[in-house]
Amino acid sequence: MKITIIAFLFIVAFVGIVDLLGFWVWRREYANKQSKIAKWFAIIFLGLAPALEILLYLFFTTQIRTASSPEFYVWFMRANIVFALIYAPKVFFLLYYFIFLLIGRLAVTFKNKKYSKEQTTIRYPKVSRKKFLSQVGIIVATAPFISLIFGMLKGRFNFFTKHQKLTYPNLPSAFEGFKIIHISDIHLGSFASNFHKLEGIVDIINSEHADVIFFTGDLVNNFYEETLGWDKVFKSLKSKYGKFSILGNHDYGDYTGWKTPQLKYDNFRGIVDAHKKFGFRLLRDQSVAIGIDGQEIALTGVENWGQPPFPQYGDLKKAMVGTENHPFKILLSHDPDHWDAEVTDKTSYDLTLAGHTHGMQMGIDWKGFKWSPAKYKFKRWDGLYQHKNQYLYVNRGLGFLGMPARIGMPPEITVLQLAKGTLGAS
Fold first, then answer.
1. With helix as H, strand as E and coil as C, how does 120-184 read?
2. Which residue has the higher pLDDT, 91 or 226?
3. Could you report the per-residue pLDDT of 279-314, keeping only the tens digit for each?
């Protein structure tokens, strides 16, 4: 509850600052104008502000009463998209305006150190400063709006397959070419009852003819009811040597206030049982062996372990019991922060698979350049990482949470193929 209150106060402060700056720009540039641009500017920057403040307050008070239902997360995402569609254009326009203003002042300063207020106006051939500012500003403000719409309608369902080959000198020969499908962070409640949205991944995954399928947590947003009806989708996933899963931070029911501990426990048991109904073997701080032609590799699944405020339920020492004599080991751990904290240099796991970050559901991945706000929260947030002879792969996830959109970070199905040879990745 304390975190919720802080988040709400932060949002209100953010809204207030943005709208005050918007009001200042309107007074400076458009207050005395009767043009359509001036009127629309006033409506967008000023007219919607009080209404949104009221909606935020109502949303905050309603959350306290209704957070104990799966529908809350759907309304939460809808509220977020409305907020983003209103305020992303505002923020981008203000950034553009103040950069434009700064450049203008610097240009005049260099031209004449003793400039008057009138000299701060930048002259463009046949185009006044205000008209140029308005026209370009509209383009700048519209770009994030269009991106959000695309990410909401197309981006969050634009599933893509990422192939990665890893070679290890200690891989048993029977596992040459061993193919792993890695998926993560489905967040079923975000899809509501739109089963068809995920049915397409079944054909994509089954076409790869995987040896195993690994799911690295966050099956739901918070409630076991989110899993109802989805067994018909996930039972259709096929693999030669089984389907294995772990729990993520959202699978424990920690993000709501339960009237009694029993209700929370019953919810948790429902989520655990759903893994079995879906055909997954859920690993909870335990290890199993996968065997081919008399040779084995170890597979360990650990409970969620993350840096605060995320829970640290996992007990890796307990989970890895029985793996000592296996030449090759794979670890499933939902939060990639666990890899640096307890895996590298402390264990002999050759490959760790994680999810959790979603790539923050927005970013850029283009011709080798990769960026997302997630990098400022997580040291390892997307793709393959190496530390000496250990690898970590972080999957972006199939689902979405908070914002029903993905912009530049489409939902991912990872196909990992193991081979015997000199340590390397391709």
1. HCCCECCECHHHHHHHHHHHHHHHHHHHHHHHHHCHHHCCEEEEEEEEECCCCHHHCCCEEEEEC
2. 226
3. 999 999 999 999 999 999 999 999 999 999 899 999
Q: 356 phi and psi, to 5 degrees?
A: 80, -45
233 and 313 share a domain? Answer: yes
The mean of the pLDDT values for the chain is 84
| Confidence band, pLDDT 50/70/90 cuts, at residue 125 | very low
Domain that holds residue 269: 161-425
Q: For residues 390 and 392, give the distance between their C-alpha atoms in angstroms, rounded to a whole number.
A: 7
The reported pLDDT for the residue numbered 195 is: 78
Statement to judge: residues 310 and 218 lie in one domain: yes
306/284 Cα distance (integer angstroms):
15
Look at residues 153, 172, 191 and tell me which one is the last residue of a structural domain. 153
Contact 378, 357 (CB under 8 A): yes
Is there a single domain that holds both residue 188 and residue 135? no
Distance CA 361, CA 377 (A): 13
Half-sphere exposure (Cβ direction) of 387: Cα atoms closer than 13 Å: 17
Q: Are 228 and 192 in contact (CB under 8 A)?
A: no
Say if residues 296 and 328 touch (Cβ distance below 8 Å): no
**Chain Cα centroid distance, residue 47:** 32
Containing 366, the helix (H) or strand (E) segment is strand 364-366
Q: Model confidence at 366, in pLDDT bands (50, 70, 90)?
A: confident
Q: What is the pLDDT of residues 218-259, one digit of tens each?
A: 999 999 999 999 999 999 999 999 999 999 999 999 988 788
User: Per residue, what are the HEC states of 70-92?
Assistant: CHHHHHHHHHHHHHHHHHHHHHH
Q: Please state the rounded mean pLDDT for residues 209-214.
A: 98
Q: How many domains does the chain have?
A: 2
Q: Are 124 and 132 in contact (CB under 8 A)?
A: yes
Residues 128 and 166 in one domain: no
What is the pairing mode between strands 286-292 and 295-301?
antiparallel
Task: Kindly state whether residues 372 and 329 are assigned to the same domain.
Answer: yes
User: Which of 381, 418, 413 shows the shortest CA–CA distance to 182?
Assistant: 413
Please tell me the predicted confidence (pLDDT) of residue 11.
72
d(CA 335, CA 306): 6
Indicate if 147 and 108 belong to the same structural domain: yes
Of residues 384 and 74, more confidently modeled: 384
Query: Quick check: 5 pLDDT over 90?
Result: no
